[in-house]
């Protein structure tokens, strides 16, 4: 409801106020002319519904032979668990639709049920991609045009993968990229502390208990991706 609309509503009540006056009053009250001012913001919505939301986005990787490969990443906003598609040089409609089917199979039995999927308006997302997800009871939410912050979780995890892995790895081909990303995804889900989860990994092994290390000799290190990533754990008793 804009200022002119408000002026018209007041006019019906016999009150004559110029639209410029209404605009000045709204600005002084720091209230925009919108029908909902008390509803949740986008950030509040994401936090409240995080356990039932998945975000996804495409990213590209250039191989050593200057070939562009595409990967589709999914991240569960509640647990921060990620799922990665196989790499492809041709993300056509059939391939994208198959990734939607793979996602629904991986989410079979997921509690709580996923209600929303957030994606951008990339033309690689076909109509059949949305159809598969809607058939599973999900609502597909498309972000506004040129608004990467609306899909910030997916954008952030892509940036993390690049900073911790891909920017330091010379990818030779599709199979090499798939192996690299599978290893990184396993590390991200089970071994990498996450600030949003009180420094616990998304899939923390809560049942495993080890004694508190009392010296450096009690700490074990596991190297991944040729030593690019290190995982640390206490020596078992």
Q: How would you portray this structure in words?
A:
The chain is an alpha/beta fold and 237 residues long. The chain has 3 domains: 3-39, no CATH class; 43-197, Nucleotidyltransferase, domain 5 (2-Layer Sandwich), CATH 3.30.420; 207-237, no CATH class. Helices cover 34% and strands 18% of the residues. It contains 7 helices and 7 strands. The chain is elongated.
C-alpha Rg (nearest Å): 24 Å
Number of helices: 7
Mean pLDDT: 87
Structural class: alpha/beta
Please state the overall shape, judged from the principal axes of the Cα atoms. elongated
Q: Beta-sheet strand percentage?
A: 15-25%
Which class of the largest domain in CATH terms? Alpha Beta
| Share of helical residues | 25-40%
In the predicted model, the low-confidence regions spanning at least 5 consecutive residues are none
Q: What strand line-up does the widest sheet have?
A: 3-2-1-4-5
Quaternary structure state of the chains depicted: single chain
Tally of discrete structural domains: 3
**Do you know the CATH topology of the largest domain?**
Nucleotidyltransferase, domain 5
Number of strands: 7
Distance between the termini: 67 Å
Can you identify the CATH superfamily of the largest domain?
Ribonuclease H-like superfamily/Ribonuclease H
Biggest β-sheet, characterized? 5 strands, mixed
- Tell me which CATH architecture of the largest domain applies here: 2-Layer Sandwich
């Amino acid at each position: 409801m804009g200022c002119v609309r408000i002026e018209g509503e007041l006019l019906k009540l016999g009150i004559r106020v110029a639209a410029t006056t209404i605009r000045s009053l709204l600005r002084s009250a720091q209230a925009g002319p919108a029908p909902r001012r008390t509803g949740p913001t986008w950030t509040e919505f994401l936090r409240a519904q995080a356990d039932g939301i998945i975000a996804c986005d495409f990213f590209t990787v250039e191989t050593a032979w200057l070939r562009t490969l595409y990967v589709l990443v999914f991240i569960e906003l509640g647990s921060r668990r990620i799922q990665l598609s196989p790499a492809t040089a041709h993300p056509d409609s059939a391939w994208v639709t198959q990734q939607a089917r793979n996602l629904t199979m991986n989410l079979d039995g997921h509690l709580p049920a996923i209600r929303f999927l957030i994606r951008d308006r990339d033309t690689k997302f076909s109509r059949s991609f949305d159809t598969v997800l809607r058939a599973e009871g999900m609502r597909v939410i498309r972000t506004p045009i040129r608004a990467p912050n609306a899909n910030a979780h997916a954008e952030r995890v892509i940036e993390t993968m690049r900073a911790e892995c891909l920017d330091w790895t010379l990818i030779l081909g599709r199979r090499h990229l798939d192996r690299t990303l599978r290893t990184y995804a396993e590390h991200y889900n089970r071994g990498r502390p996450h600030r949003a989860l009180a420094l616990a990994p998304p899939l923390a092994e809560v049942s495993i208990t080890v004694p508190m290390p009392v010296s450096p000799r009690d700490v074990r290190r596991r190297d991944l991706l040729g030593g690019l990533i290190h995982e640390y754990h206490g020596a078992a008793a």
